[in-house]
Every structure is written in C-alpha cells, then in structure tokens.
Amino acid sequence: MALLAPGGCARLNMPRTAHVRQRLTPFATLSPAEGQAVDWVKATSIFFEQDSRPIMLFDGVCNLCNGGVRFVRENDRNRGIRFEALQSDAGKKLLRRSGRAPDDISSVVLVEKDRSYIKSEAVLKIMEYIDLPFPQLALFLQFVPLFVRDFLYDNVANNRYTIFGRSESCEI
Q1: Residue by residue, what is the 3-state secondary structure of 78-110?
Q2: Residues 86, 57: contact at Cβ < 8 Å?
Q3: pLDDT band, residue 1 (cuts 50/70/90)
Q4: Which of 19, 92, 149, 171 has the least CB density, counted as fewest CB within 10 Å?
C-alpha cells in the first residue's frame, strides 16, 4: 500500500514480517570470537602428539641464539630437543601456550608437553638435556637465586644484537 508523503513522494508501507535470523557457519576461524579465550595448550597439543621431545624456541635472527642452537645440537647426542624460531607461526603459537605475547622475542623458551621455561630457567633445563658435564653444571647453577640468574640473563639478552650482531634470516 502506497501513501503519499509530503513533498509528493510515495512511501511504501509494508507489513512487518517476523525477524529472520541468518545462520553463518564459518569455514575456518583464525582468532576466537569476542569474549572467548583460546586454550593454547589444547590448540598446540599437536606439536607433542607424535613427538614428545621438548621444543627450544629461539630468536632466529640473533647470532648469539643461532650459536646457542648449534652448541645444543652438537652436544645433544640423543637428539632430545627440537628447535623452532620464535618468529615462525609455530613459534608464535608455542609462545602463547607459554603465556607470552606472540611477538615477544626477548627470551629463549623451552616448551615441554606439560610446562614451559623462560630465561635462565630455560637455559638450565636445556643443559639438563644435553651431554655431560652440562647436567651437573645446571644442578650447581640452580643454587644461584633466580633473580640473580634472570638479571644476568636479561643483561645479555638486552644487548645481544649489539654484542653478537644479527643475521638476515634464521639458520635452521
């Protein structure tokens, strides 16, 4: 039914129909819906389904970090540790699993199936996985208070590019 509105225009009056709710089924989601939290342990459990070895996350462009990875590889005869750059997609997911921001490259992180270690705790835990005499050295260094170990770790980490430089790409 059309009614003549002021100014000579016709206005169409339609009877209201019931509100139709559209259902959208997403094909895939990259981020959670607003208000929902992601269980990053569950979301990254695939990394430990076939291989239970821990994963060492490291800064892929840091020369000190790349040297550390080479050192661990050379002294890990049992191949007890896997490696992943912090900047990779997998690294970012594992950072979130560890309670850290996905763009936080300030620390080495060791991710085990049930726990994550950061800073000096990660270094000591990595030392436990590699060949002698490093597990014994790690045991000894655990007696140094955490705040002292992390203070020293942070000073090296904050100056690693200045002292050791950086590379254009990740070596592994």
Answers
A1: CCCCEEEECCCHHHHHHHHHCCCCCCCCCCCEE
A2: yes
A3: very low
A4: 19
Q: Provide the Cα torsion 65, 70, 72, 78; round to 10°.
A: 150
CA–CA separation, 148 and 155 (whole Å) = 11
Cα of 149 vs its chain's centroid, Å: 23
Dihedral (CA of 82, 88, 89, 91) sign: positive
pLDDT tens digit string along 137-171?
Answer: 999 999 999 999 999 999 999 999 999 998 877 76
**Residue 102 vs residues 57, 69, 74, 89, 123: alpha-carbon distances, Å:** 12, 21, 29, 9, 20
Does 115 have pLDDT greater than 60?
A: yes
Q: Which residue has the tokens 């049992």?
A: 78
For residue 74, what are its two tokens? 């050379």
**Residue 57 in contact with residue 91, Cβ under 8 Å?**
yes
Provide the CA 32 distance to its chain's centre, in angstroms.
Answer: 16
- Which 3 state secondary structure label does DSSP give 76? coil
